[in-house]
Amino acid sequence: NGVSYCYGCKDDISIFDEYVSKLGSEDRELFLRILWHYEAIYVDEPLGKYRDRTDSMGQNFGKMIMAQKYVYDKITKLYGLPDSYKKKALSSVYYEWASVFYNSLHIREGLKLQLKSIIYNPMNPYPYILTRKMLKQVSIAFKDKIV
User: Fold this and answer.
1) Which end of the chain, N or C, is less surrounded by CB atoms within 10 Å?
2) How far is Cα 87 from Cα 72, in angstroms, rounded to an integer?
3) CA–CA separation, 26 vs 86, rounded Å?
4) CA of 65: how far to CAs of 50, 81, 106, in Å?
5) Is the pLDDT score of 117 beyond 90?
6) 25 and 67 Cβ atoms separated by less than 8 Å
7) Handedness of CA 116, 96, 129, 43 (dihedral sign)
């Protein structure tokens, strides 16, 4: 029936949000709600597999970014968190996606997201460090066109 449960979790956090499931990022949203109520530990080994298909929702970058923005808006409101928490989280989201775009040589889109990352959290060092990666990708792209 498309409903996933968190076994052992409280009833109020036990299922995926149907709206987020339509957008993508439902796992992120559920995990954030679980982490609000339960302590987490780091396990340094794979506990599951991720299937990556070319037709999966995860390949629709615009929709995934919109879904992740929705998730952080929802979590911020749901738990009464300061807006600064959401901005820091979105800075990381934009940084991650900028890196994805740079890797696929979509430099303009990557640069836009990198700048958004800096605007949302100017103290986040990662988008600044990403500039080096972007310049490397640009040099590769130009080198291929020149040769």
Assistant:
1) N
2) 9
3) 17
4) 19, 21, 16
5) yes
6) yes
7) positive
For the chain, the helix, strand and coil percentages under 3-state DSSP, each to the nearest 5: 65, 0, 30
pLDDT at 94: 94
Backbone angles phi, psi at 138, to 5 degrees: -65, -45
Q: Phi first, then psi: what are they for 15, rounded to 5°? A: -125, 160
Q: Which is nearest to 102 in space by CA: 127, 138, 77, 74?
A: 138
Angle between helix axes 61-78 and 26-37 (nearest 10 degrees) is 20
pLDDT value at residue 11: 64
137: Cβ contacts below 8 Å, ≥ 6 apart: 102, 103, 105, 107, 110
Which residues, 6+ apart, have CB-to-CB distance to 73 below 8 Å? 86
Spatial distance between the Cα atoms of 10 and 128, rounded to a whole number of angstroms: 40
pLDDT tens by residue, 37-48? 888 788 899 887
Model confidence at 2, pLDDT cuts 50, 70, 90, reads very low
Backbone angles phi, psi at 5, to 5 degrees: -120, 150
